[in-house]
Design brief:
Layout: E1 2-5, E2 8-10, E3 13-16, E4 21-25, E5 28-31, E6 34-35, H1 42-50, E7 60-64, E8 69-73, H2 83-86, E9 89-90, E10 100-101, E11 104-105
Antiparallel strand pairs: 1-2, 3-8, 4-5, 4-7, 5-6, 8-9, 10-11
Length: 107
């Protein structure tokens, strides 16, 4: 969970840490050139594939995450305001970690 402005917070997944390279190509995210395993998106990706499309339609060219910053992505990849739009999230913007939703623990 991080502050976008004084009155606005976002909840996203931290995908890449300071010093790591990150790239998004279709439904695959790469960290330091290696594919990131994201089992929490499996059903959505398979559902899109069964319709002949990708789940994510917004790619991101490879960048290195600066020191003191993080790269975040939303699970609704094609319709999410995340680091692809907002840029890297600074450490001081992060206010907490979400561990459950409606009482159910997150993977």
């Amino acid at each position: 969970m991080f502050k976008v402005s004084n009155d606005r917070m976002f909840v996203k997944r931290v995908i890449a840490l300071p010093g790591e390279t990150v790239k998004v190509a279709g439904d695959q995210v790469y960290i330091n050139g290696a594919p990131l395993r994201e089992p929490y998106l499996k059903a959505a990706i398979e559902g899109a594939a069964s319709k002949g499309s990708t789940y994510n339609v917004r790619d991101y060219a490879e960048h290195t995450v600066p020191e003191g910053c993080y790269f975040v992505l939303g699970d609704n990849r094609s319709n999410s305001s995340d680091s692809r739009d907002l840029g890297f999230v600074k450490r001081e913007q992060i206010v907490g970690k979400v561990t459950s939703v409606n009482g159910s623990p997150l993977p």
